[in-house]
């Protein structure tokens, strides 16, 4: 037990550092970054960034991939990204604002990517619609696809049988930091985001985690989920 407590304290200390937390927040857009890019994000020197990244790699929070002359850093797993995003839900919206009041709406609070899935107000609304339409059900902190839901996913171009084979979480609730409610994450969430981008339902905003729904996307979401975006 003592060994576990020591390791937990070590992880908490790593995540609590301001520079490292800034780098980890930057990585939530799902892309890989160089140490130089992350140093700019955290406003530290390249050497300091490399030292921080080494500690995160040793703790299996971040992994590095070498490509040509560059080294690219990303999360070690989608589960790590989920933890970082969920931590943001603990942040108060400010002393002058009641905790029940949502942050002022912006591109990133309305619709954004959370690592490899859709988040923000729209992400939560789509998850609610999936539940309301009986496409998925929440069972012991995990989303399960219903028999009718399997057909629904097939209709939008997502093969549930193939997703089940992936060596990762199938579908789980992810606490949305701006909505303070759950959106769907895991392999299902990632597949939904991917298919929406491929079909031009949504488009990513350059240099931002924000996304915008196209006219086609709004029409298709209305068609498939009876949801106004």
TrEMBL record:
<dbReference type="GO" id="GO:0003677">
    <property type="term" value="F:DNA binding"/>
</dbReference>
<dbReference type="InterPro" id="IPR011991">
    <property type="entry name" value="ArsR-like_HTH"/>
</dbReference>
<dbReference type="GO" id="GO:0046686">
    <property type="term" value="P:response to cadmium ion"/>
</dbReference>
<dbReference type="GO" id="GO:0032791">
    <property type="term" value="F:lead ion binding"/>
</dbReference>
<dbReference type="InterPro" id="IPR052543">
    <property type="entry name" value="HTH_Metal-responsive_Reg"/>
</dbReference>
<protein>
    <submittedName>
        <fullName>HTH-type transcriptional regulator YdfF</fullName>
    </submittedName>
</protein>
<dbReference type="GO" id="GO:0097063">
    <property type="term" value="F:cadmium ion sensor activity"/>
</dbReference>
<dbReference type="InterPro" id="IPR036390">
    <property type="entry name" value="WH_DNA-bd_sf"/>
</dbReference>
<dbReference type="InterPro" id="IPR036388">
    <property type="entry name" value="WH-like_DNA-bd_sf"/>
</dbReference>
<feature type="domain" description="HTH arsR-type">
    <location>
        <begin position="1"/>
        <end position="95"/>
    </location>
</feature>
<dbReference type="InterPro" id="IPR001845">
    <property type="entry name" value="HTH_ArsR_DNA-bd_dom"/>
</dbReference>
<dbReference type="GO" id="GO:0010288">
    <property type="term" value="P:response to lead ion"/>
</dbReference>
<dbReference type="GO" id="GO:0003700">
    <property type="term" value="F:DNA-binding transcription factor activity"/>
</dbReference>
